[in-house]
Amino acid sequence: MKPQIRIGVIGTGHMGQYHVNVAKSLGAAQLVGIYDANEDRARSIADKHQTKHFQSEESLIDNCDALIISAPTFLHHKIAKLALLKHKHVLVEKPISQTVIEAQELVSLAKQNGCILQVGHVERFNGAVLELSKIAEHPILIESRRMAPYNSRIQDVGVVLDIMIHDIDIVLNLVRSPLKSIKAVGSKVISEHEDVASVVLSFENGCLASLNSSRASQAKIRTLNISQKDSYVFLDFTNQEIELHRQASSSTQLGTGEIRYKQESVVEKIFVHKDNPLKQEHEHFVQCINGESEPMVRGDSDIKTLEVAHTILKQIHGNG
Q1: Burial of residue 54, with CB atoms counted within 10 A of its CB: 0-12 exposed, 13-18 middle, 19 or more buried
Q2: CB of 167 within 8 A of CB of 299?
Q3: For residue 267, what are the CA distances in angstroms to 128, 138, 167?
Q4: To which CATH superfamily is domain 124-274 assigned?
Q5: Where are the beta strands (DSSP E) in the chain?
Q6: Phi, psi (5° rounding) for residue 4?
Q7: pLDDT in single tens digits along all 320 residues of the chain
Q8: I need a labelling partner for 82 at 20 to 30 A (CA). Which of 54, 165, 198, 250 fits?
Q9: What does the alpha-carbon distance between residue 243 and residue 264 come to, in Å, rounded to a whole number?
Q10: Which of 58, 312, 298, 66 is nearest to 182 (CA)?
Q11: For the chain, how big is the Rg over CA atoms in Å?
C-alpha cells in the first residue's frame, strides 16, 4: 500500500477554504497544514479543520509532498516556483500565472524536476463536461454564457482571467483545430478591470466559438451550446446536465387526417455521473502523483489558454 501523499494548502480565501475542506477528506492523501498571509484567518481555518497553520510558505512546503496554491494570481508564479524547485508537486488555481513567460518557466521547472504541475480548471471535472467530448465531436458553432453578480473578493484580475478562462480552456480542448483569429470587446462596469467581455474565436476548420462573460449580472448563468451538422448540445454547468437534440424527419397522421404533426427533433437527456468537481480534481491530482493517471489539465496546455486570454485582454484594453 502506497503511503499517503502529504498535501498543504497556501491561500485560504474563498476558494482556498473549499480546497482545505476537500483536501482533508481525501483517502489517499493527508492534509498536513495551511498557510495564509492573514495569520488570524489561517489560525481560524486551521482550528475549524483541525489542522496546523504554518508561519511561512517555505515551512509548509518543506513538510509536504504536494501543494495546492489558491493565493491571489500575482503570487502563483512565486509560490509554484518555490515548490517546484524543492521537487514538490503543484496544483495551482487558474490562471497558472500572470504572464505567459512565467507559465513557461513553471512548466519547464516541473519537467526538469519530474513534478506534476496541474492547473485548477475545475470545470474540466464537471460531470457534464467529462461527457461532452463523447458527443461533441465536430462542433460548427459553440456559444458560451458565463454570467454572475459582482464579487468584491476578486480584485486583481478582470472577468477574462476570473471566469471566461474556464470557457477558453474548454473550447480549445474541444475543437481539434488550430486557432485562426480572435476578436474581442469588453468594458469596465464596476471594477478597475474589464467586467464584461464578448469574444469570437475562429478556427481553421471553420468552427466559430462565441464566448460571453459578465460579472456585472444580476443572474448566475453558466451554459454552453454546441451546434453540429446533425445535432445540438446544451450543457448546464450548474446542474451538471446535458441535452442532446438530434434532427429527425417523420410525419404522423392520426384518425381521419384531422390531426397531423411533424417531429423535427429528438431530445435525449445524457446520463451524467454527478460528483463534487473539486473533489474529482483533487483525487485526479493524487492519482497523477502516484502514477495512476496522466494529468487532464497539463501546465503546457494552459500556456495556450493563457496566450489566448492575454490576446483578448490586449484587444479589450486597446494596446494590441
Answers
A1: buried
A2: no
A3: 16, 19, 24
A4: Dihydrodipicolinate Reductase; domain 2 (3.30.360.10)
A5: 5-10, 29-35, 66-69, 89-93, 117-120, 141-147, 179-187, 196-203, 208-214, 221-228, 231-236, 241-254, 259-270
A6: -65, 140
A7: 678 999 999 999 989 999 999 999 998 999 999 999 999 999 999 999 999 999 999 999 999 999 999 999 999 999 999 999 999 999 999 999 999 999 999 999 999 999 999 999 999 999 999 999 889 989 999 999 999 998 877 777 899 999 999 999 999 999 989 999 999 999 999 999 999 999 999 999 999 999 999 999 999 999 999 999 989 999 999 999 999 998 766 555 555 556 665 656 788 888 888 899 999 999 999 999 999 999 887 777 889 999 999 999 999 998 54
A8: 165
A9: 16
A10: 312
A11: 22
| Whether 86 contacts 61, CB under 8 Å | yes
**Pairing label, strands 208-214, 221-228:** unpaired
Does domain 5-120+278-293 correspond to CATH entry 3.30.950.10? no
CA distance 143 to 199: 10
Q: Which three cell numbers stand for residue 289?
A: 502523483
Q: What are phi and psi of 107, to 5 degrees?
A: -60, -40
Cell digits of residue 113: 524536476
